[in-house]
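Example 921.
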Amino acid sequence: MSISTTVQRSKELKELVFDIIKHADAALSSARIGKLSVAGRKDLETPNFFSLSSRGAVPHLTPDVISAHTQFGGVYMALEDFIERAGNATPPIMNCPGPFPLHTFAALPPSLITLLAPRRTPAVTAAVGNSNNAISIFTSNGFQTLSNKAYINYAEKLHPDIAVALADIPHGSVPGTKRVTKMADRTQGWLTELLSGRKEGKPAIFAPILSIDFLDQSEYINELADEFADDIDGLAFYDSNLLPDIPETTALSRLPKLSLDEPSSPRHILRQISLGMDLFTIPFVGFATDAGIALDFQFPRPSQEEGIVSKGTGSAPLPLGIDMWSTSHSTSLTPLSIGCPCYACRSHHRAFIQHLLSAKEMLGWALIQIHNYTTMSTFFHSIRESIRNKTFESDCEEFARAYESELPEKSGQGPRVRGYNFKSEGPVEQKKNKAPWLPLGGDDQVAQSVVPSDELAGKLEEMGVTEQADQ
Amino acid sequence: MASATSTPTPIPMLKPMPSALTFELIARCSTTKARAANLTLPHGPVQLPLFMPVATQASLKGLTPHQLEATGCRLCLNNTYHLGLKPGQEVLKAVGGAHKLQGWKHNILTDSGGFQMVSLLKLANITEEGVRFLSPHDGTPMLLTPEHSIDLQNTIGSDIIMQLDDVVITTSPDAARMREAMHRSIRWLDRCITAHANPTTQNLFCIIQGGLDLEMRAECCKEMVARDTPGIAIGGLSGGEAKDDYCRVVNTCTGLLPEMKPRYVMGIGYPEDLVVSVALGADMFDCVWPTRTARFGNAITAHGLLNIRHARYANDFGPVEEGCGCMCCRKKEDGGLGITKAFVHHLASKETVGAHLLTIHNVWYQLALMTSMREAIIEDRFPAFIKKFFDDYHGADKTKYPDWAIKALKMTQIRFENTSIRTPKRYQNSNPARKTLPIAYCHDHMIEEA
Ligand SMILES: [Zn+2]
Ligand SMILES: [Zn+2]
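Predicted structure in complex with zinc ion:
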């Protein structure tokens, strides 16, 4: 807990400061409580998470809703979401005025920390591999290459609070042995270039840890410990299994550690925290929201009330979420989670949210998103309490007994509007709802004097009236 | 069906109809027929003239009730047809009505559901009993009677409910059918009045029918006014008729309606239509267009419609509309979000947040337009307001003023200098999509999408 004077001195030059406040019982766990401070932003106690954005927006949530109804402390932004025009012109975001173009462009509340990375998480598998000086990215206009030079330029101009350095990661495919040897070398070269060109320590830089065996990147990681540790501001893990392999030097240990490892459940988050992870990006929040699943768990155990009221007794583990598509909620006046302090739970009930999903009203996903983010904020708050109380390891065991290990399967459909980023992956809904009924008439005039629009066509198609390809 | 055609409808001996509203006339324009009034409804007061955004299925296109409230909205519309399908009457009963369902503390107006059935379901068939149609769920034959409609709206608990009416498209050449529909609407009004279970907490509005035939409209006004409902709607319009005809019908009806009752013209929402209709003496309007067009990337502004998806906005770091007071357009220093056209452009058709932001702006624009009309009426400078409005809307190019508006305003004694009336055809050809869209496009809450 004592901070060395050298660290103290270097802090004055840095935009980002990370203080480690408390460690869990060291014999059992590497979990720790920290505080991430960025000038001009709200301090963030860790362990904590950044919400994911899509094209600069947190899906379903306008910035006023973020301010009023969420507690997350930062937003992850993918550069590939902003530079689809880079081939022909300067991407508009690069023309955005003000000292913090990324923030200003996305109209983010000033209290939020911005984290810029080259690619979305999860990222769409690239069609072509990376090269010695560039990676392949996926924009709304398709695949492009992003050179390290360009990335450095973007990171400097856009002025995020934190930038994750470019990493040679073959998203989605397993690298061959020849490739593996290059990955660490390239990443190290790119990091060197980034750090040497950086002015006044802005932005803060997180060095990537690759999703390959430690031995295949040991040289790079040792270099991080020996040469880069004072210049970088954090580590970004594409594979959290590398955590125990990181040399426990003072300089590396003091750095905040960010997970880009796509945890699939709260249990994975807990495991990573016990290995020493401080910060997370959590794709399953958005997946759950789009699937109409309201997250429903508390750490380390469900509240008394909830355990009794809605979960029954017995020792069967509880589901981690509630499928809000189920018509069993259609007249339920209870909130998504009993005792949840979120706007959706205070102002609305399951019957409304079930109705909104079933009617495909966008507000349904917005309300579930608010709830799911609040659930995560409460979860992390409880985790920090648990670490403070030195009960983290036993609490994790209790959580594992109380809840199922993975989120429930989705049953309903996602929101109508899907990002381009979903195209190349994942279970995308195949076809819009099959019409429950068909008109018997022959002519295709549906409503007089109405210009058919693509949106209207969607509605009509849904009602079985006509078939028209999406625009 | 034709047998009932010209049966004169006797005015029944009705007990005086209770009302759950108070209507207070605040000001009258000394030139036009425009009025400003306060309307107090069961869930609070609203100020007329008024635009009502359409929350078809108990939500306004991604906005939380909180956000809708922040636009200044205190009366929004829900569609009975849609709520009857989803969540359905049983759920509405169990939940305790539409206010409780959607967590909306303010007023709700519902339509009768009949119009949407006729529009959406081409197999709908109208008889004296009601509207016959096939269930969208399972295809079984169903019947919507005036009694069903009122019962459903009583369950919904909306502050203003609408009678079931027999709607024939105004451009229909079948005068006999039109007359039948007008008389049937009167008969159905009587059945609605009889069926209405909550007259002290819900206000039933009649709907004047009669197509474009002014005499038929006059007859309908006389009959329906005699029924003494708390408010009166002018129906059947915005179905593709020429705007000249539309204006004549509104002008005729408002001339025959009692001064001390609210007048609601259904399905109207283009800014120019709103301004002219207010000048013609109408008070209340609804339309899905502002929220629908937002989802196509269109921002409504005092200077016309902007399609933010256009490449010219990609690097425009100004607000959606300079000087707009909405949450999106206000600068961060002024407590707003500081949303730029560039950001909306960046999100358009890719993230729903972009549509939500434009929806907030567009609803704000519509409500602010009504508020500024009200202020102008109260200060008796409405004619000047109208001139400035058309000036702004058409970039001060008087040759672009729509003829129908010039003609309609002439009916109200307003003349624009240096404008001449051209043929409607020329007007249509010489103007881009915005102005040539038939009013009908506006009335498509009948085809409201999810
Ligand atoms: Zn909640
Ligand atoms: Zn605005």
